[in-house]
């Protein structure tokens, strides 16, 4: 299965990708996760990406295209992959099509998670992650038992720097301007399906798996 999950920040792409990894045994490729790891490591790519990410802007195409090109040739992508957060611009989509063609592959499916922007601001602003084990929480929808402390490992819960309200709004307008045109791009290519991303997580998951022909 070679899948792209499209949708604005906070639409649930990462959550759904993780559920699909278990169901289809293919890797999740999240450019946001790869970039955050590079920032944490202080690698040259991370240093270059940090200021873009902190302001909610997109990291330059050549950087993310390079990341994905390197990742797609790894052996665990042989039977497929789930792209989460890539492509985000038309040049990235074109670059992906070309890279896959060289590998003799093509995208099977593009699923767009449709969500209400105001609801997304609440979702993102309340998001907290354990700094030790990476478990996710939400102040309103899935609060930890003890404020600021991870239920699983006792680690400190932190807010992503780009999850403050001003940056969230900037990320939404970047999405509208640069990423939304991809919905039309993949509709024309005949690979697009849309799912209501406002449904509860499990129901979104069922709808996605049904579209992909997996067990519900
Ligand atoms: P995400 O975790 O997918 O919301 O990504 C977090 C941030 O990483 C974004 O706001 C961008 O700054 C950067 N980023 C992730 N994926 C891409 C991409 N495909 N193109 C450009 N920037 C990206």
Provide a brief overview of the structure.
This protein is globular.
Please give a structural write-up.
With 216 residues, the protein is of the alpha/beta class. It has 9 helices and 8 strands. Helix 1 packs across helix 9 and helix 4 runs parallel beside helix 5 (90-102). The mean pLDDT is 93.
Topology:
Blueprint: E1 2-6, H1 13-24, E2 28-30, H2 31-41, H3 44-55, H4 61-72, E3 81-84, H5 90-102, E4 109-114, H6 117-125, E5 127-130, E6 136-138, E7 157-158, H7 165-179, H8 181-189, E8 192-196, H9 201-212
Parallel strand pairs: 1-3, 1-4, 2-3, 4-8
Antiparallel strand pairs: 5-6, 5-7
Bound molecules: adenosine monophosphate (AMP).
Essential attributes:
9 helices, 5-stranded parallel β-sheet, alpha/beta, Rossmann fold, 15% strand, binds adenosine monophosphate, 216 residues
Give me the CATH superfamily: P-loop containing nucleotide triphosphate hydrolases
CATH class: Alpha Beta
Determine Rg (CA atoms, Å). 17 Å
Specify the structural class: alpha/beta
Average pLDDT number: 93
CATH A-level architecture: 3-Layer(aba) Sandwich
Major sheet, described briefly? 5 strands, parallel
Strand order of the largest sheet: 2-3-1-4-8
Total E-strand runs = 8
Helix and strand succession?
EHEHHHEHEHEEEHHEH
Distance between the termini: 16 Å
The percentage of residues in β strands lies in: 5-15%
- CATH fold type: Rossmann fold
What number of structural domains do the residues give? 1
